Amino acid sequence: MIQMLEETTLPINSVKLLASSRSAGKQLKFKDQTITVEETVPDSFKGVDLALFSAGGGVSKKFAPEAVKRGAVVVDNTSAFRMDPEVPLVVPEVNEKALYAHHGIIANPNCSTIQMVVSLEPIRQKFGLKKVIVSTYQAVSGAGNRALQELRTETQDYLDGKEMHADILPTAGDKKHYPIAFNVLPQIDVFEEDGYSHEEWKMIHETKKIMAGDMNSKAIKVTATCARVPVPVSHSEEVYFEVEDAKNANVAGIQAALRNAPGVVLQDDPDHQIYPMPINAEGSRDTFVGRVRPDQEEDNAYHLWNVSDNLLKGAAWNSVQIAEHLDKLNLLHMQ
Amino acid sequence: MIQMLEETTLPINSVKLLASSRSAGKQLKFKDQTITVEETVPDSFKGVDLALFSAGGGVSKKFAPEAVKRGAVVVDNTSAFRMDPEVPLVVPEVNEKALYAHHGIIANPNCSTIQMVVSLEPIRQKFGLKKVIVSTYQAVSGAGNRALQELRTETQDYLDGKEMHADILPTAGDKKHYPIAFNVLPQIDVFEEDGYSHEEWKMIHETKKIMAGDMNSKAIKVTATCARVPVPVSHSEEVYFEVEDAKNANVAGIQAALRNAPGVVLQDDPDHQIYPMPINAEGSRDTFVGRVRPDQEEDNAYHLWNVSDNLLKGAAWNSVQIAEHLDKLNLLHMQ
């Protein structure tokens, strides 16, 4: 987040770093300044124009309204407000205009949703979109720094012939823990009563809200399967989709739409083994899309494969990008 | 393969181990015997009742007809004869009866196909099957021992902060090679002209041949996306499927069909975090199935997640199991 703020075009006068009392006093760099982390209290937000929250849903629920009360616009990277009909859920490439309706808080979607809607929006604009079936191959960093360390430790233990020990994944808040090293975990976040994981639920309802304005919209059907793979950074997704305009849609037309789309880099040349991969996406703000091909037995269905850095476009960059768009639209008054 | 033969119920009198001249002279154990590997020549098959081939398509094309000429029944684990309309392509749990039509050669399907059709057949029998959309998370051992070694070396290099070097994956026969460690490769085998990989092509046409009797059958629609993940053994698959009998199908009915199905172990209890994972499937002949849940916006579509040991049910065990069924049906005359 700090790195994205260092690189932003926003006219930043000063930066505050806020955290819990546990982290207060820590010193972090912003450009050539050293900034001391302060404990968050409601009055921390006095005089603040823009507050980026990314410290868990509980913290956002408690402090985001306090920040708004004190005149800040909040971009919240947690799930606290995403389904609030009063709070825009925004991916700038897709629904920038939703920003006009904000009341102080704008929600940043879940990482796996963001890269999917960035890949699908250019197609939706050109050919319409009826249905999406997504299978994810998600990176470990989505579960935080401790999960990343767990992947490293388990991996080394496995190579050394030792037993692997899991404390965090599939999700810190659940009862059982399984190794991610050399494994695939078909669980991200906890399970809902209907057998979907909460991550899958998010992909379904966030996509509907971002692309069709309502978390329960019937305009676009979405279903999802989310799995964690032993990759540190960058989620991959196989996206199967049905277009409205079957007559005019084709692979070349979809590729053309993607080639010209903001935030998208088309990497689609199977003959030369060009396709998106996590190791190439890490560190980039773009969503890489390839393997566009038709379902050979349907006239309106296609596949694509996308990869994006879940920590940048999936989190920090999308948050800062929202702030840039707020500023551009005069919806954020930087003093 | 040797291990599966050690454990088989087939009445084996003697075993020959055949290979190229490069491996001839090597000694391997079968139960308490030490057997010297011999170079394969046409007359190697004199007096042989059952020949299991697993040394590449070229070897099978050259020697399988020679073995048949000398009275052996061949179970071929390569892709050499899979699409030959005269050669049954068999997964015993699904289409055992196809064995009756054999002319000396029976083909063993591709690993990723086998575990999918084992999972789907009980559902097809009960509710019919219209369409399948599969996304795979395939293990490295599917690409052979050298690929497995490559995964280990790359993994250690990554942990040591060294650059990773790839020589084999995504597929030895293609021009470019990319690391598999901490990565996902959306390429298995080479690409066809239509943008599908050959592995995806196999899943589509083998499934049609096994379940509907014809590699181009329109009775079941199939589309596939195959990706390799950094897992040594056991493929995982997200299988999305549409049933014929939407009115009577439901999750409980699908689970009941799977619970009673041969070769299937139902591991489906999300509340207790019970679902199939590669680390639990390695070494088992079964296909583990879980995460059965409906597409919430379709009345005839469901998801399941399956995992199976690609070296056992996906290869060696299915081959030996075919032999056992040939014997049971009196289609193999063990002397």
UniProtKB/TrEMBL annotation, chains A, B:
InterPro entries noted in UniProt: Asp_semialdehyde_DH_beta, NAD(P)-bd_dom_sf, Semialdehyde_DH_NAD-bd, Semialdhyde_DH_dimer_dom
A Pfam match is Semialdhyde_dh
The alphabetical list of record keywords is:
Amino-acid biosynthesis, Diaminopimelate biosynthesis, Lysine biosynthesis, Methionine biosynthesis, NADP, Oxidoreductase, Threonine biosynthesis
SMART domains reported in the protein's UniProt record: Semialdhyde_dh
Q: Where are the transmembrane segments?
A: none
A GO molecular-function descriptor: protein dimerization activity
Catalytic residues, per the record, are: C111 (acyl-thioester intermediate), H235 (proton acceptor)
Query: EC number(s) for this protein?
Result: 1.2.1.11
* Classification via Gene3D superfamilies: Dihydrodipicolinate Reductase, domain 2, NAD(P)-binding Rossmann-like Domain
Reactions catalysed:
L-aspartate 4-semialdehyde + phosphate + NADP(+) = 4-phospho-L-aspartate + NADPH + H(+)
* Organism domain of life: Bacteria
Q: What is one GO biological process annotated to this record?
A: lysine biosynthetic process via diaminopimelate
- Give, as one word, the top-level EC class: oxidoreductase
The entry's family comment says: Belongs to the aspartate-semialdehyde dehydrogenase family.
Q: Which NCBIfam families match?
A: asd_B, PRK14874.1
Which proteins does it associate with, and in what oligomeric form?
Homodimer.
Q: Under what name is this protein listed?
A: Aspartate-semialdehyde dehydrogenase
Provide the taxonomic classification.
Bacteria, Bacillati, Bacillota, Bacilli, Lactobacillales
